[in-house]
Structures are given as C-alpha cells and as structure tokens.
User: Fold these one by one.
Assistant:
Number 1:
Amino acid sequence: MVATVLEKRGYSVETAVDGEDALARALARTPDLLITDVMMPKVDGWSLVRQLRSHAELAMLPVIFLTALSSEDDRIRGFRLGADDYVTKPFRFEELDLRVAKTLRRTAQTVQETREQINTSGLRGDLSQVGLSSLLVLIEMERKTGLLQLRSPDGISAQILVRSGKVVHSRLDDREEPVDAECVYFLLTWAAGDFEFVTCVVEGEDRVNVSTTHLLMEGARLMDESSDRAAGPAMKIPTLAGHEDNDELEEPPDPPSAVFSPEPDEDGATLTGDPSIDGVDAGAVDVDLDLDDRTATSSTDDNWE
C-alpha cells in the first residue's frame, strides 16, 4: 500500500521482501531514499542501516524508519543510527508523502553545502545532523588533508588525522586508548556532538593502514555484534543519545527512486498506514554548518600541535 501511494505521487518505487534483500538492491542500484521497517527477517532495520552506512556509496543515503515501534527509546535509537526521519504506525499517507519530500530536499541541500564548505578552509557542524561516516566518506571523495576534531556532549574530545582523504591516525585527547582504527570504531558510535575540520599539513606514518570503506564496514560489524545478546559484544562501545528537531513539512519534489522494506505482521500481511488516522509528531533533523577560517598544522606524534 505504501509503495502504491508513493507511485501515485510520481515516485519510482522498488520493494524488498526483507532487510537482506533491501541491502542487496541498494548496492546494485543506489536509490535516492530508503524507507524501512525495523522488525524484519534475516536482517532487521537497525542492522540494515548500520550496514548501509558501512558502504561508501551508501553512507549519505537518506533513511526513513516506518515502524510500529513507537517508544522514545526506539526513536532515539533510530536517530542515533543516522536515520533522517522516524515515522510510527499508524500514520497518514499524506504525512508520509510530505516527510519523503522534505527528507529528499534536505539531503540534497546538505550534501551540496557540505561539499562546498569542505573545499574551503574549514567545516564545522553537529554530528546529530551529519554523521561521522558521512564526513569520512566526503573527506575521502574530496581527497582532503587535515584535522577532524570531535567533541561529545559530555566533554570527551577526539582528533582524526586524514591525508589525501585517508585516515592515518586517531586518538582521544585525554585518554591513551583507544587509538587509530579502534578509536574510529568508538567514534562511529557517537550520535551527537560537534565536529570541525581544518585543512593542515599532516606528517608522520600511516598508523591505520586500512581504507575508509574498511573502517566503516568493521565499525558496523562491531556495533552489530555488540547489540547481539546471543553472541555477546565483540567490544564495549558506548553510545551517546541523539536528538531530533521538528520542521515544517513541504511539498513533494520531482520523482526520485526509492527502496521500501516492508514489515510483515503475524499473519504475513504488510502493515501499512491508515489515511483516516491522525498523524504523528514530526521528527526530522536539519543541518546547520558554519564555516571557520582557522587553519592548523598537526603531526602524528604524541604531541599534536
């Protein structure tokens, strides 16, 4: 029903039977938007989004969760994983239509603004609006060299050095561990905080020795294992609560393509919204990035300047 309604609005929609199928379809042909439920066979919605973010070509893909899980903890978890919106069932199709349009418009604007700013002297913003995985992918695509500084809401700060788009060193400012790749895996769990990238000279050896794609895929794997109670955590990686903002809904743009992952109910039927039922509160997040002209010079020894 959701696919039918969106197609009537002019969107090109491709459906998937479960999370595994959705991932395969997205990798085969990158969509403009993914709408997914959480409770699905093989790969649930949480794991699907983590795996999407581990692939460089899908790290910036906008995602809307459409699910019966309506608790505040579930919403926070969704935004923590990098969802662009979270819609709970039951819902009104008119509302979903507007949220889809707004998410597509906001994502296109965010990517354009971020690329423009990262090609100047610096970039700063909010991790709840532009996730670390997306930042690392953009830095790699633009082959930037410099220092990416991160600070969590509880005051923990970290630094990531990149050279020609590749991460060569990472560490926390006030702790000896984790460092390098393990530090990046830890930082990928941050859903909130501030970031700033400055262009600077980066000297010293490459202490990471793996690609950005490898870092993102391994980080996603570790987060999957840490959330799997049966297997037990591969490493204990704390996360920080994300947040969302409410924004005015807008009209639909030109037709894009999308992948929709349905959630079956107990009888095997697809759960869909009822247009006669009132909508839910908006939960989209927006980006507000400011340019800073500051530059710095750093090296990969123990005393960074």
Note: The chain has two domains: 2-111+243-261, 114-238.
Number 2:
Amino acid sequence: MKHIALFLLANLVYHFSFCQQLIDKTPFDLVDNLIFIQLKINNHPDPLNFMFDSGAGVTVIDTQIGDKLDLKISGETKIGTAGKTLTSKTSDKNQILIGERVKLNESSLYLMDLSHLSTFLKTNVDGIIGVDLLKNFITETNIDAGEMRFYFISGFNYHGNAEPIQLISLESDLFGIPIQILPKGAKESINLVVKIDTGASNYLTFHNNSVSENYLLKPKKRHKVSKGFSLDPTITSNVRGKVTFAKIGNKKWKNIPSVFEIDPVNEVSKRKADGLIGQELLLDFNILYYLKDGIVYLESREK
C-alpha cells in the first residue's frame, strides 16, 4: 500500500509540474498547409483569423481590420519582404489575447493590405503573427492534436523524445537550422542553412545567392516556372526542380520538390539563410520552439 501511495504521489508531482508549465492552448485550422489561429485585439469581442508564420519578424494586421478596430496610428516604418521594401503604418501599445491566458501586451501592429492572401487562400487572412509570439512564450505546434500550446519560459522542462537542434540567428530576429542536401546530378552533399518558415506551404526554397554559389541548377536544362508572392503582392518568377535528398538531424527525405529563386526581384532582399523549409516538410513534426535557449525540437509525428 505504501508503494502504491508513493507511486501516485510521484505521478501527481510530475503532472502538476507539467501543468504548471502550460499556460494555455488553442485549436488551429490548416489551410493549404498553413496554420491559422483565432485571437483578439484590445478586448474587441470578435475573434480574428491570424496566420502563424515563424518567418514573420513583425506582427501584421490587415488595413481594413485595423480601421475596424480603430487602431491608433503611431507612425510609419519600412518592412523588407521577398519582393521589395514596403512602407507600413504602425500602431503601438496593443494587447493580443490568444485563448484565455496568453497575452502579448504593448504589441506593435503593422498595417498592410492582405487581401491578395485572402483571395489566394480562399479564407480571411486578418493578420500574421510569428516571432513576436515565439519570443514571449515557449510555443508548440502539435499537429497530431490540432492545437498550439504555450508554456512559461521560466522553469520549463522538456519531456519529449526529440533531440534539441541549435537555432542559427538570422536577420530581424528570425532563425534557421542546418540542413544537408544532395543536389540533382551532384556526387557530394552540401551543408546549408534554411529558415524555418511556417508561412510557406511548399517543401524547400533556395535563395538566389545559394542557387548560384552552390550550382543547384544544372546549366542548359529546362525547368518549369514557379510563380509566387508573399506579404508583398509582387509576382515573382522562379523555377521548380528537385534535390536528391535533404536531411535534418535524423530525418531524411528523398527526391524533394524545390523552388530555386532566379528572379532578380528576390536579390534585393538581404537574407542570411540559403533558403527556407516550408510546411510540406515541417508538418512531418510536432515542433516546440524555445527561442530563449536558441533551440527547437522537431518531434516525429504519430503516423
């Protein structure tokens, strides 16, 4: 009887500790592989549909939504995108509420027209949130459970089964991870850095500088054109192809569809990474972001 009591007590302490770390959780919707969560701004009763984009260095809200919420404009700032630099109105000292207990106070919002994203995705894109959230909370995207979970940074203990991957600091508080790839036709693999980008629905994208420096495209070979846009509605024309394999940690993929940037518009962006990894590959994992310690955990999903 004594042993049973000690066992129950140990389990109670463990679960209490774990629950103490969890602040709140919220369900998400997947739209074209992209994660959307509901949140509220400045105690406004209507929830807004925000995309979770780990590649977004600022929190963006659609201009029309900003007008509806009567946001106070603090000034203007320039935002660099994959296409060009845009001027955005800013609103400071806002409160963002996710669920019942996840609060971001004194938040700056950048007002931009997101109607092109709403049209393309066939869903309301009221805003985009990324790094501002990840800097303030340990954040988990649990695809198996269909929810985002938020934990206190202080006293957090990881209980999963994944090995930590050291993050590599990029521009605008963004972050990347090392990846090993074997380009088509190459005999030796190369090591690159890719930004973790939950705002990209594809597999892999390689930036202009990396494409040329690492000879990722075979000369004289015809490639299919890939058109796209981002936060900036400017249409870019790049090419599609594949890499023989890609490997992150112990996870390896073969014959991966990839976008190779060749459009001169993309060269304007000052990006430190060689490319980005998008949701087609990231959805293989439940991901826990621990930016304070500069690490990320990629947990293989239950399949």
Note: Confidence is low (pLDDT under 50) at residues 1-20.
